[in-house]
User: What shape does this take?
Amino acid sequence: MNLTKNEITAKGNTKIKFEVIHGHFTTNHSHVNRYIDMNEIKNNYKAAKETAKQLAGAIYSSVPVDAIICLESTRLVGAFLAEELSEGTRGINYGNDIYCITPEYMNNQIILRDNLQKIVRDKNVLLLVSSVSSGKSVQQAANCLNYYGGTLSGVCSIFSAVPEVHGIKINSVFHADDIPDYESYNPAKCPLCAAGKKIDAIVNSFGYTQTH
Assistant: This one.
């Protein structure tokens, strides 16, 4: 099955871009009418570095960071972001020794092993995700961080459909107005399902798998 695609470029930086695939998709938390393919940004070092610079510009002067929790395959972007905050900009994190960690999931819950907990306990932690649609993954990560004794100092995302989640501001490169027809639905109230449109693919941070 062929799905329609188009390319979106970041405002002010033509080196940051991703593909938007049109259809009916299911995620862990919602149904969406667009899948954002961030393969290049998350896996190409040049694109990842440019994305990190863009994110650092929004937070370097006001967000303290001791560690970055990298979710949804954002470790490469996270490493460059740590470098930008510590060495590239003379903000409040200049010279900091910033950790980048990727937590595990067990029974759909984020966990940190004993040897990683000390990295976040009593520390200022920045959460980095690839995409925010409903905001549930951000809230889940915030709850996890609170459990392990860390302080959520900020949230960065490559794309976010919402400006904040429960009062937590989302700093993102791409916003809802970059994809004006992007919609996220509660699976139980999805109008595409109600109209009888089949799910085109199951999607997550690793990619998509077509269902028919």
The domain at 5-210 is CATH 3.40.50.2020 (Rossmann fold).
